[in-house]
User: Fold this.
Amino acid sequence: MLSALSSVLSLLQAVAPAPAAPAKAPAPPLHDLVAIQVRDAATLDRILALDLDLASCHPIELPAREVEVLAEPWELRKIEQAGLRYRVLVRGIEDAIEAELAQWSFAKTLTPDVGKGSMGGNYTLAEMEAILDAFAKNFPALCTKRTSIGKTIENRDIWMVKISDNVQTDEAEPEVLFDAVHHAREPVGMTTTLLFMDWLLSNYQKDPRATYLVEERELYFVPCLNPDGYEYNRSIRPGGGGMWRKNRRLNADNSYGVDLNRNWPTGWGLDSGSSGSTTSETYRGPKALSEPETQALEAFIKSRNFTFGNSCHTYQELLLRPWGYQTGEPTNGARYKVIDVEAVKVSGMPAGPVSTLLYLASGSAIDHYHAVHGMFAYTPELGTSNEGGFWPNPTNQVAIAYRHQHMFQTFAYAAGAAVVMDEEAVLEGPGSNNNGRVEAGEKGVIKVDVRNFGQAACPSKVILGLVSKTTGVKVLGGSHDLGNLAAFTTVTSTTLQFEVDAKVQAPVAELELQLVHEGRTDRRAVWVPLVDPVSLVDDDFEADRGHVRSTGGTATTGLFERAAPQATTNGSVTAQPGADHTPAPGTLCWVTGASAGSSVGANDVDNGVTSFETPTLDLAHVVLPTVSFWLHYYESVLPGDPFAVEVSADDGQTWSRVWSIDKPTNGWQRVEVRLTGLPAQDKVRVRFSAQDLSASLVEACVDDLVVGGYVEAGATTLLGSGVAGTSLRVGMNGEPGALGLGILSAGTAKLTVPGVDGELLVDLTKAILLPALPYGTGDALAFDLPIPNDASLKNQTFWMQQLHVATKGLRLGNRQGFTVR
Assistant:
């Protein structure tokens, strides 16, 4: 994608140097990253009383619970003297991170531009300024030049830019604040914010979501509130890895720094959640708003009318909201929960109050945004310790920044009216045979929920409409006036009806839902199967057919593997079954840590995400493709961490979530997911993910996968990676009573054969004819084709096509290919 970020490197050559760093205190001593064990609430209180630098509070299964702490040697002694048990995760974390990031000097070649910064892949302050300048230069009608909202302790500017369609005009539109880098060691918040800005600008009038947000919102960005601390980290660790957190105030005792996220007035001064000690990482300052950085942002907020605030931090993969300085939730907590659901739809991370998911934190920005300025306010904690914590490597920077773009979009939407259609259901209409499917000659009903998850009523009427795209399918009730949909309101529509003519022979009817609001029309295709789909190709996982554990997983235990699961129980409930789903002699499935281990929590999913994915599937010949599978899923806490199914249409480069569940299946459950709306179907992958980011037990098993859909007689579908030593699963479809003859060839062709329907797409001079197989009474055949370990075959591409032999004639179907690897 050509984006505004692509011009950064050239612009940097023309950027004036950053302000010279003033005389500074010596670099602070090295820290160890340690995990202190917490057995109960009283132990956690003892840890908090020690006033340590809590890197993150990482909840795992009770009775074990750990708090990650950055500690200098004298603090380790303090931990020991308090009788607390700890383990060292990383010794000398600054050196360890610097060494890790130094290996990524080649990151300049990464695409997209996230991960290309000069500070271990992160952007320096000068690079951030250049990006803001590029935005203003390339999109002058949409983005202002950077404006200083105030000066820091060391006289640096705190930059702000605005994005909107009439950017120089103060319009009566919902206003949203995005800030980052309250804490100087958290660059990924800046990166994710800049990426969101780039998406808005680069996709204006191209993507309907970006266009809507730019035209209907006024979006203000402060990507680095703490430039002094950020530059100090660059001065002591130019390649990244500096652990300085606070600003650079010189305190009366010659120590440095105030924690800007403990300096806000709401809850300021409480020892539970901040510190009065100048040497503490959570030092709150001599008084509320004592720091020029928080003063500047507070004055800016007072000059605007923000309805939503996002103050971005790292790390822990949590979405935090008020309250932090006290337990409990605000009076509008139920409305926060509505936004929570939409915000974490892609990431799946836990959401809730700071004091519930982490610990008490007094004097924080989001409590103040909410209590004093009336905003809905959030702090997303981006990334995990397994991804590098505060300083992830460039690859993880890309992963973190991209997976949270939906959340940033949600925040912008929720500042005003945010009207969306949920997944629709197709029901049989009156007079149907009640077999669960609309058929030719019957009527159907579209049931769909329309939600406004935003904090304002829609300023115009919301109209839900239905249009037919298939000849012979007639819309009966084609419109539903939902009125001015109120804030945080859901309306269920069942008034949209259609009728299928008895003569329609198409296997699938296409309709279109249209949601009209605020002068725009959102469209969604609705596919209505009129006959049962067929099985195209299947995998019981008993043989290696090319499924692999996904790269980039962050879980430390319970990783997906193809194995025979061993039974585990939590109390009287089965967490992991003792057998797969395939009937005997089947034994294998994909399971998160097959071994039972010493206890139910020994090999379950912990500390992150684990995934496995299919080989690339060519489904270009399939109408309305589906993936079905059997799932055994256990989650000990409700609502819990979701098990998710994602699909990629570009061979695994980008993924979209298409189904999830966050509660136990209570045994094996069949799941069917439609793979609709894909931009292309020739390079499809499906990914299955389990995660544990909260205090719970998580186990998952997946078995007996089937790819289904609608195809013409003679179709062939392949499933396999092509890796030598694995098996290629071949699926063929036809008519009962016919024969299927597979033709395997090392070459392609395009010939018309007299008397044969279809084209010959493989080279017969390089072909092998496989044995003819009878369809009998069925419409699907499947067999395995072993790929030999023969070096002469490596990198060769082979093609397969079916000759369908039926009483009514011969037909050549589609062509499928695979490359031996």
User: Anything to note?
Assistant: The chain has a mean pLDDT of 90. The chain has 14 helices and 45 strands. The longest helix spans residues 187-202.
